[in-house]
Amino acid sequence: MAEVNIQNLTYPDLTGRVRKITDLYFAYGGFSEVYRGVFTDDQGAQHFVAIKIIRGLHIDKDVEATIMRRLNREARVWHTLIHPNVLPFLGVARNLGSSVALISPFCTSGNISKYLDDSPQANRLDLIRNVARGVEYLHSRDVIHGDIKGPNILVTDNGMAVLCDFGRSRIINHRGFTTAFAGSARYMAPELISPAIPATESDVGDEDFDPSQYMSKKSDVYSFSMVGIEILSGERPYPKIRSEHRVLVRIPEGLRPARQEYTLSEQHGMIWQILEQCWVAEPSQRPTMSSIVEELTAL
Question: Domain Protein kinase: where (predicted)?
Fold first, then answer.
């Protein structure tokens, strides 16, 4: 298979072997849109794939440089990760947009929220174990995901949860791997929020606060626990609070999921006890992902 070089790293080059099925994207992020496509392999077999295309290029040189750094960061981290609970990176294609596109398998079941809506009887413990093992693997490679949340957990055709979207990930102690204000409010550890968030929407926060310097394996552990609550309940954390800003303000004040608001089976109650350890305010007091996997496996 041909390869393409991006900033002195080589990736499988799928140019000419991937095509879009439609020009309507099915997902999007801050700098990207994701389209459904088809990949033709060496034997001529066709496979559905997701095509992640970076947008916003050629608007401003500084913006373009930022976007390309993020693309390179994502490809650099993602292509090294091989694990059953990490979405595979297939390669790149250069003929589908204004920059190289990142290609991965298409998960017809969608993200974890959609999957649970469609399959309410799914084994939720298994799904939480899947996510835990994926994060444990990242941490064993000294990779911090940095944006663990429901939309970044996909479910494969055989019902296995996999981590995706490594655009905010970084390798510990690797120069050049920085990230802007990362994550989504409901899943973010308190140390990544305060004091960046103003008390009211009209106030100005601390513009010099850089959450990336506080990203750690422990902040991933916190975010994992919020995903665990989402899998258990089928709802995003804090479903009764509509305002994202209100959530951001209250998490540093001690806002956490309240057990009395959920109806839990005996097994789910034991899962809750494991997750509860993960959202304590002090990062050093949170367990490691390896110990979490061990506890979940024992259930």
Answer: 20-299
